[in-house]
Design brief:
By secondary structure, the protein is of the alpha/beta class. It has helices at 2-19, 61-68, 83-92, 113-119, 151-163, 193-217, 250-253, 280-287, 302-305, 376-391, 401-417; strands spanning 36-42, 71-77, 123-128, 142-145, 170-176, 224-229, 254-260, 269-276, 316-322, 331-337, 341-347, 354-360. The protein has an eight-stranded mixed beta sheet with strand order 4-3-5-1-6-7-2-8, sandwiched between helices. It binds zinc ion.
Length: 422
């Protein structure tokens, strides 16, 4: 009899744990609001150069360890092929959806994650190379939007912050760009562009390691949600490109996405579902048990992570507007992507003419055979999804003319400095 009672108790406890969704997680599950968040992005990091995503060279031990201790998404799609389309969309969980993003002015938003978390009592800090933060810096506790800053200095500043006594939970976003602008010159890499790219990645990975070890040393790793991703990937010779910020090919859209938090996020799980970076904000809010704004277009990935019912939009959109690198050149590129198909639409420079490219990603993951003329039904169906999405385009903010002029000048100077313009 005693045995039966004990057995029943065990079954009861297991049922409670299972149905609460907590699995084998600890107390943190019920106290997630006290979690810190360390959000790490690495500019121009494509996922397939990380060992945890299948790269044959073992060059990213720290990111791989993070992946082993958390969950990874294998089909995380960026909402733009450049920083200035991707970052505002993942911060606000709203697509930029502006076919002419002149001088990088963004529509104001009530859904900017750093501002939301600040309102909810978080200490919000951003340390970003590539002047990455596009919204009002004065609304945050700390925002260092720096152009030419290297990993050593960024890490040093973040570690300095972590070591200070905190009286509230923090959300800290750090954006590295040592992959975007590797320090090894092409000549030093013996003309090997892949080696040059990987060298930047090795350095970025070392710095991710420093941050993770510091969290452990300070005993902050137990209650800090670490997220690692990238704003976009990089062309490494595919489609003739060694850069990003052009056509929304998969090599510039597919980025790593890793979540780790002991007691909240299970270990060693891998999800092949297509998700977007616009899902990051809603996921963080869900983990913290905070409501997502209705305007947000992304969905929380937390139910999927916990193997609960997961309803997600099957279409992910990405875009880019090119005009600033070549005077007189002007084209808007956008795409709709499902798990198996991608339709790219390009408004050709100097005209209203549209070009389409349709790819079967299952059979042709390198996007080499355009099926727009062959798979007519699929083409029409996705074209309609794209048109519906574009119809929801947002109003471009009209800024004061003087501010606009200054901003334009600033942008041109930056791009020249970065070598994008002559
Ligand atoms: Zn970027």
């Amino acid at each position: 009899m005693k045995k039966i009672v004990v057995l029943m108790l065990i079954v009861l406890v297991m049922a409670v744990v299972y149905f609460s969704g907590a699995g084998d997680f600890g107390d943190l599950f019920n106290n997630k609001r006290s979690l810190n968040i360390l959000f790490i992005t690495i500019d121009a990091l494509r996922k397939d150069h990380l060992t945890c995503y299948g790269y044959k060279k073992d060059i990213t031990p720290n990111i791989d360890r993070l992946a082993r201790e958390g969950v990874i998404f294998t089909q995380a799609i960026s909402q733009g092929s450049s920083t200035h389309y991707s970052v505002p969309s993942f911060l606000s969980s709203i697509y930029v959806r502006i076919p002419q993003l002149k001088n990088r002015f963004y529509p104001p938003t009530n859904t900017n994650l750093p501002e939301i978390l600040k309102e909810k009592g978080y200490f919000v800090g951003i340390m970003g190379a590539n002047a990455v933060y596009p919204y009002d810096q004065t609304k945050l506790d700390l925002c260092e939007n720096i152009d030419d800053i290297q990993a050593e200095e960024l890490t040093r500043r973040v570690v300095e912050f972590l070591r200070k006594e905190q009286d509230k939970p923090f959300f800290f976003w750090i954006h590295y760009w040592d992959v975007h602008t590797p320090r090894l010159s092409l000549a030093e890499a013996g003309g090997d562009k892949i080696l040059q790219y990987d060298t930047g990645l090795i350095l970025a990975d070392e710095h991710v390691g420093i941050l993770l070890r510091e969290l452990e040393r300070l005993n902050l790793d137990k209650n800090t949600l670490v997220i690692l991703s990238a704003d976009h990937g990089e062309g490494l010779g595919e489609h003739g490109s060694w850069s990003h910020g052009g056509i929304v090919w998969d090599e510039v859209l597919r980025v790593p996405l890793i979540f780790k938090c002991p007691g909240v996020i299970p270990k060693q799980r891998r999800f092949d579902n297509q998700v977007g970076l616009i899902d990051i904000g809603p996921t963080i809010l869900d983990i913290l048990r905070l409501d997502k704004s209705e305007e947000m277009e992304g969905s929380s990935l937390f139910p999927l992570i916990l193997n609960k019912q997961f309803i997600h939009c099957p279409y992910i959109f990405s875009e880019h507007y090119q005009d600033e690198f070549k005077p007189g050149f002007d084209r808007y590129i956008c795409s709709v992507r499902t798990q198996d198909w991608k339709l790219i639409r390009i408004r050709v420079s100097g005209s209203e003419e549209l070009e389409y490219m349709l790819y079967n990603l299952k059979k042709d993951p390198k996007e080499l055979t355009n099926l727009a003329e062959v798979e007519k039904r699929q083409f029409e169906f996705l074209k309609q999804r794209l048109e519906d999405w574009l119809k929801q385009k947002r109003t471009i903010v009209k800024l004061d003319e003087e501010i606009a002029k200054d901003k334009a000048k600033e942008t041109v100077e930056r791009l020249r400095r970065l070598g994008y313009m002559q």
